[in-house]
Design goal:
Radius of gyration: 15 Å
Structural class: alpha+beta
CATH architecture: 2-Layer Sandwich
Number of helices: 4
Number of strands: 10
CATH class: Alpha Beta
Largest sheet: 6 strands, antiparallel
Shape: globular
Distance between the termini: 25 Å
CATH superfamily: 7,8-Dihydro-6-hydroxymethylpterin-pyrophosphokinase HPPK
Number of domains: 1
Order of helices and strands: EHEEEHEEEHEEHE
C-alpha cells in the first residue's frame, strides 16, 4: 500500500490537486487508487503571507516492480510538470507538492529521502486526509495506527473539508 500526500497553494489549487490525482493512476495497480476528500488547510512553517493550501491524500497498490525510489522520482517529475522548480525553498508557496508518505512497511533513510515521511505524523493536513483512507494502517517505527496518531496530535492547524470531490474519492456524502 502506497500513501501519497498532495498539496497546492498556487494557481487553481483544486484543479491542480485533481489533475495530480489523475496522474498518479499511472503507478497504481488497476482499480486500486482511492482519494480522500480535499481540505483547505492553513500554511505550516511557510513564509509570511503564504496562502492556504488545498490538501488531499491518495492510496493505491503499486504496480509490480515499482520501488519507492523510482516512485519518488516520478512524483518529482509530476511536480515539475505543474510548474514547481527543481530547486526550491522549503515550505515556500507551490503549485504542487507530492509527498511519498508510506510505501508498504518500507523504512528508508538516505540523502535522497526518508520513509516513512519524517514530518507527516506531526501534520494535521496529512493525517486528516490519510485517516479517511487507511485509518487502521500502522505507521512504521511508531507502532500506532494513523487514526491513533490523529487522535493524539496537538496542533493549531486549521483544516476544513471542501465540497469538491476529487476523482476516485472514497468518502460518502
Amino acid at each position: 500500500m502506497v500513501l501519497v500526500g498532495l498539496g497546492s497553494n498556487q494557481g487553481e489549487s483544486t484543479d491542480i490537486v485533481v489533475a495530480a490525482i489523475e496522474a498518479l493512476v499511472t503507478f497504481a495497480q488497476p482499480s486500486s487508487l482511492r482519494a480522500s476528500q480535499m481540505f483547505r488547510t492553513s500554511p505550516v512553517n511557510c513564509p509570511p503571507g503564504s496562502g492556504d493550501f488545498v490538501n488531499a491524500a491518495v492510496t493505491f497498490e503499486a504496480k509490480a516492480d515499482l520501488a519507492p525510489e523510482a516512485l519518488l522520482q516520478e512524483l518529482k517529475a509530476i511536480e515539475r510538470e505543474f510548474g514547481r522548480a527543481e530547486k526550491y525553498q522549503r515550505n515556500a508557496p507551490r503549485e504542487l507538492d507530492l509527498d511519498l508518505l508510506l510505501f508498504d512497511d518500507e523504512v528508508r533513510e538516505s540523502d535522497v529521502f526518508t520513509l516513512p515521511h519524517p514530518r507527516a505524523v506531526d501534520r494535521l493536513f496529512v493525517l486528516k486526509p490519510a485517516v479517511q483512507l487507511v485509518p487502521e494502517v500502522i505507521w512504521p517505527g511508531l507502532g500506532k495506527t494513523i487514526a491513533c496518531l490523529l487522535d493524539e496530535l496537538k496542533t493549531d492547524e486549521e483544516v476544513h473539508a471542501l465540497e469538491e470531490r476529487p476523482p476516485y474519492c472514497c468518502v460518502a456524502g
